[in-house]
TrEMBL record:
Region (Disordered): 1-22
Keyword Transferase: yes
Segments passing through the bilayer: 38-59, 123-141
Domain HAMP as annotated: residue spans: 142-195
Main subcellular localisation: membrane
Histidine kinase domain: residues covered: 203-415
The name this protein goes by in its record: histidine kinase
Enzyme Commission number(s) of this protein: 2.7.13.3
SMART domains with a match to the protein in the record: HAMP, HATPase_c, HisKA
Length: 415
């Protein structure tokens, strides 16, 4: 009896998207914490400016700037005045009217100096309080957004490998707790659906392996009988080829189910070596089809599973050889390390592929302009397996139509 495989985990989210360029000015897109800080600080700054303006106007009105002085000299003899701030009134050669005018001008000057001093000191105080307000707003924004940070971290862990993670937020029943509870319920449903799907694929594939192996053994024994008639020999060969195709389908399903899991045990793997091994396995088929395999493969070491990574290269190279032009075709396989990423590129000549059909190529059992079972070149799982393995390693695979026909398959993996 076949054993039930362990429930698989979700594939990790790709860490890098080569099709999405970096924004030219990242500082023009501030985080929500910075925006909240600017909002809090800006509101305080506007309120402070309004308050300062009101105080200034009230102080100016109380000091009666521009009005008559509170007193004036109307008469008297031997009046002597000494002033450090108003030296004009200290002159003894002024008439009474000139003396009163000098006093009024001096008082107005002192009132204006007092208002200017009040304004400058208030602006300095407002600047200091604005700095404190922005710092306080930044701290408060971080405290308010901390539940969102917890939700984000949990979502990142779920996208990485573990659908069993939950937020389980405590606290009052506010909007953030409602969001966290809704997210937990969604994760619960996703985990059940994903586990059920993967368990079905795994169990079905395991259950199909045994009868297919028995059928292959019986057919091989029958074909080894020299006394069997030619018709029976031909029928046995046909059935054996059909059985082999079914075995490839089952193995592909198993590999597809396994490759959707996270790669737990990672070891250094050189993509150049992986690509060379894949080429050696396909070289005989390429020679038979008149397809030239070329390309320079520079060292590009990644952390991952060597068997699964070799499956990516093998599937891509096999597809490039099988779906090629009848004569004078070529397949170019290159590897390199660039921008902290390891890149495997497989290009080939072949039929023209419309851009709108590129995404369909990665769907299981889909081929270009052929029926689901209308081709003897494979079981239709090669690119699906390659994409799943790439995702399991935190990378991605992109297909682009090549000018003149064929495809350019680019696999990008984190180093």
């Amino acid at each position: 009896m076949a054993t039930t495989p362990a429930p698989p985990a979700a594939p990790p989210k790709p860490t890098w998207d080569p099709r999405r360029p970096e924004p030219p000015f990242p500082w023009l897109r501030p985080t929500i914490r910075i925006r909240l800080t600017l909002l809090y600080g800006g509101m305080f700054l506007i309120a402070g400016i309004l308050l300062l303006s009101i105080i200034y106007l009230l102080a100016a009105q109380a000091l009666n700037v521009g009005n008559e002085p509170p007193f004036k000299i109307v008469g008297g003899t031997d009046i002597k005045v000494s002033s450090h701030y108003c030296p004009e009134v200290a002159s003894g050669e002024l008439s009474l009217d000139e003396f009163n005018s000098a006093i009024s001008t001096c008082i107005d000057h002192q009132r204006q100096a007092a208002l200017d001093n009040l304004l400058s000191r208030s602006l300095l105080a407002l600047l200091g309080l604005a700095v404190i307000a922005f710092a306080f707003g930044y701290a408060m924004a971080g405290r308010v957004l901390s539940p969102l940070g917890r939700i984000t971290r949990t979502a990142r862990q779920v996208a990485g490998s573990d659908l069993s993670r939950r937020i389980e937020m405590d606290g009052p029943d506010d909007e953030l707790k409602e969001l966290a509870d809704t997210f937990d319920e969604m994760l619960e449903r996703l985990e059940r659906a994903f586990t059920a799907q993967q368990r079905f694929v795994g169990n079905a594939s395991h259950e199909l392996r045994t009868p297919l192996a028995i059928n292959r053994t019986l057919l091989e024994v029958q074909l080894s009988d020299p006394s069997a008639p030619p018709e029976l020999q031909q029928l046995g060969k046909t059935l054996l080829a059909t059985n082999e195709r079914s075995e490839q389908l089952v193995e592909g399903l198993l590999l597809l189910a396994r490759s959707d899991n996270q790669i737990v045990e990672r070891k250094p793997v050189d993509l150049a070596e992986v690509a060379s091994r894949a080429i050696e396995q396909v070289r005989e088929e390429a020679v038979a089809g008149g397809v030239e395999i070329r390309g320079e493969r520079a060292p590009a070491v990644v952390q991952g599973n060597g068997v699964l990574l070799e499956r990516i290269a093998l599937n891509l190279v096999q597809n490039a050889v099988r779906y090629n032009v009848p004569e004078g075709g070529w397949v170019e396989v290159t590897t390199e390390a660039q921008h902290g990423q390891a890149v495997l590129v497989v290009s080939n000549t072949g039929p023209v592929v419309p851009a709108y059909e590129i995404d369909n190529l990665f769907e299981p059992f889909r081929r270009l302009r052929t029926e689901r079972t209308g081709s003897d070149k494979g079981v239709g799982l090669g690119l699906s397996i390659a994409r799943s393995v790439a995702r399991a390693h935190g990378g991605r695979i992109i297909a682009e139509p090549r000018e003149g026909g064929g495809l350019v398959m680019r696999v990008t993996l984190p180093v």
